[in-house]
Design goal:
CATH topology of the largest domain: Rossmann fold
CATH class of the largest domain: Alpha Beta
Largest sheet: 7 strands, mixed
Shape: globular
Distance between the termini: 48 Å
Strand content: 35-45%
Order of helices and strands: HEHEEEHEHEHEHEEEEEEEEEEEEEEE
CATH architecture of the largest domain: 3-Layer(aba) Sandwich
CATH superfamily of the largest domain: P-loop containing nucleotide triphosphate hydrolases
Helix content: 10-25%
């Protein structure tokens, strides 16, 4: 074992490692996403976020897991989530820590993928073997992955224990045809039965071979999308004992260390906010330095009253003076999503129409000011946003049922 591996192993025992990659667990309702997450991580999605534990926590995301491999065994049986091999009992080698993530509600999840919020670096598409493929949400999620450019996926063909061998084989063929329709060839399809823990080692092997740790811009200046914020002080806390507000999210580029001064933009009331990082936390401990990869949270010296109830969601934490100035004017190249999914696309976008735009983790209302040429629109946002050339945005339109995700756009 190398010095680096020994260091990682020691840190993992002390539970101080930041996850290297965020993996979305996606698919149609009731196909077993929650059960599969539990089979891998040992954590139910409704309990993974222990609020206020250690005074700092992260709600967004399913759960974290450490992936290990036995150096003495061969094949998928060598993979697992324990530091002891289930086959030979030897000490295993830590591969990496991964985070399984989700945004509540299927349309919120899709908007997150399309907006380029980078909460997912790859995905496990869960498809039940006992239902016809594809189901509506299955297709919607794969369309969104395709548009967002996410190509690194693994399919978990779940609930194979509920069908015959012949039915499972036919379902696998249907899955392969479905994937090819959207340009996904040679995707690993792993038969699983989550409650039985069937083939979890095969699934981990496929994840390790397919969803690599992304090469992100560590040397660039810090940029983190804030996905949530909260006040950790209990009611009645004495003023002298109050702790600053907490912000959590995903680092897109650069690194952050305890003691760093950061800028939060667009800020409040048109003014950027400057604060200092007091501590950094991951799901199961605190660290001194955070990098692109798994979700992190910063404890700051912010006034607790301005961070309550995720009020900072949609802001960006960055190195000072490193981002464009906030603006209310954006030019977008807008592309509708397939009409067979979103019927609202049958009508053209109109001047003065109000749209809901998701950019990063921010949701803002925007009015269509003018159409410069085909697919090119100038919009005016109700609140200031930070938009860089090439950023992707998700676009929702309103119908009689409410806001419906209908298109995606690229900032020009």
């Amino acid at each position: 074992m190398s010095k680096k591996e020994k260091k990682i192993a020691k840190e993992s025992q002390n539970k101080t490692i930041q996850a290297e990659v965020n993996i979305g667990m996606i698919g149609h309702v009731d196909h077993g996403k929650t059960s599969l997450t539990y089979a891998i991580t040992g954590k139910w999605t409704d309990t993974h976020s222990e609020e206020i534990k250690r005074g700092i926590s992260i709600r967004l995301g399913y759960a974290d897991a450490y992936f290990y491999k036995c150096p003495n065994c061969q094949g998928p049986e060598a993979y697992g989530t324990s530091n002891k091999c289930k086959i030979c009992g030897s000490e295993t080698r830590l591969l990496r820590k991964v985070s399984f993530v989700d945004a509540p509600g299927h349309e919120t999840l899709i908007a997150t993928m399309l907006s380029g919020a980078a909460l997912m670096h790859g995905a496990i598409l869960v498809i039940a073997a006992n239902e016809k493929c594809p189901q509506p949400r299955t297709e919607e999620h794969l369309v969104a992955l395709n548009i967002s450019g996410t190509k690194n996926i693994v399919v978990a063909q779940n609930k194979v224990d509920l069908v015959s061998r012949e039915e499972a084989i036919q379902n696998k063929k249907d899955i392969e045809e479905f994937l090819k329709k959207y340009g996904y060839d040679n995707v690993p399809i792993i038969p699983t039965a989550a409650p039985l823990g069937l083939n979890i080692d095969l699934l981990i092997e496929a994840i390790e071979n397919t969803i690599k740790t992304p090469s992100l811009k560590k040397d660039a200046k810090l940029k983190m999308y804030i996905a949530r914020s909260f006040d950790i002080n209990k009611p009645g806390t004495n003023i002298e004992d109050l702790k600053g507000g907490v912000i959590g999210g995903s680092i897109m580029q650069g690194e952050a260390s305890v003691g760093d001064t950061i800028e939060i933009t667009p800020g409040l009331n048109g003014k950027k906010i400057v604060t200092k990082i007091k501590s950094i936390a991951v799901a199961d401990g605190t660290i001194d330095k955070a990098r692109p990869g798994g979700l992190v949270a910063f404890s700051t010296d912010l006034d607790p009253s301005i961070v309550r109830n995720d009020s900072m969601r949609g802001q960006i934490a960055s190195a000072q003076n490193s981002l464009p100035e906030p603006t209310n004017n954006i030019t977008l190249e807008i592309k509708p999503l397939p009409r067979f999914i979103y019927k609202i696309n049958e009508s053209e976008i109109k001047i003065k129409e109000i749209l809901m735009i998701t950019i990063g983790t921010a949701n803002v209302l925007a009015s269509v000011a003018k159409q410069e040429k085909k697919d090119i629109y100038h919009v005016i946002t109700k609140n200031p946003v930070v938009a860089e050339k090439g950023d992707r945005v998700a676009i929702s339109r309103k119908d009689e049922t409410g806001w419906r995700l209908a298109a995606y756009g690229v900032v020009l």
